[in-house]
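Bench notes, afternoon.
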Amino acid sequence: MDDRPARRVAFVSEHLEGAGGLELFELAIAEGLAALGWQVVVSFGAAGDLAERWGAVAEMAPLECALSRSDAVAGADVAYVHSPHLFRPTLDAARETDRPVVAHLHLPPFHLRAGWKGLVRGRHRWEMDESVYSKRTHIEAFAAVSDFTRNQWVSSGLPADKVRVIHNGIDPATYHPPTQFERDRIRDELGLGADETVIGYVGRIDLLKGVEELIDAYCDVSDELAPTRLVIAGAPTRDSGDEGRRLSERLRAKSPASVLWLGQRTDVARLYHAFDFLAMPSRWDEPFGLVLIEAMASGVPVLAGRRGGVPEILTGELERCLVTPDRAAIAAALRTMLSCDRSELVRLGIDLVSARFTLARTARAVEQMLSEVIRGRGETGAISGG
């Protein structure tokens, strides 16, 4: 078999919309692979705000059309899936034409009970699909977004030799420090004063994200650090329903007038240009923390909860940007950060992302993984090359 990389990959997606980091990363990798010369096809259930970008790099295969998920996978050398809900359907589609499947692990193994519940009530929340989540998995290879996430999945039953770590990456052409004009323009649009120090939050409105602790901590320090603003960009997920709506309303009601709520935004790269700092004090074990590298590449120093995969990003001199995600610790960290040498943190963040977390670097690692899987399958005679 020719040793050159496979040229066609089938992404299997749910909704082509920017609901979170998973969906945005999936699209970014499609763009990165296309830039490396791969042919990309994406099968999906529904279009959304990312459909136009997908259409620029991929052959579109909406499931309501005659082209089925199996057809899309059959025309590719390998199927590539990011959402755990689609791991099994992707396997089913790939089996019909004996195509290999590669999965990307962005989330923790939610199927496991944590702590004492796992001992008292049994390890799993629901019946396991052994063809997906076991040492006998039929998925050829997995990529985890951090060592922390990889260890979680290997502990949950995936074979260690099938799970590698590929950290997320961003495109410096999209996320970059602003010119003075870009900074002034977005601040004017948002009604932010030139003399105001702006702390930004970008993410879903969820208690696990630490957004309430951030608001409370900001209330504790805003008067002594004036003029300061907190800007919150995000919304509850669709799945959170009325509970998410009530949480958002409660947090808005308790926020002082200096907190600016923007709701869900599709221009996050521009929003970073308005920020002086970004806070992501998550209370849960973030698998990675994509907004952190987006912000740092944009010249925005960050403050983040010391949980999950985040310490793998903020290493070396940037370890000081990690904080225990509670109100008092966040308030203390804000006081320290807002009084320190911001220019030094800007430089450290940009250098870190440039060295370790670019999209080109990540796309090459994904390309290597996909190519290895296809070569391995080809050596057994099970795939013709699409």
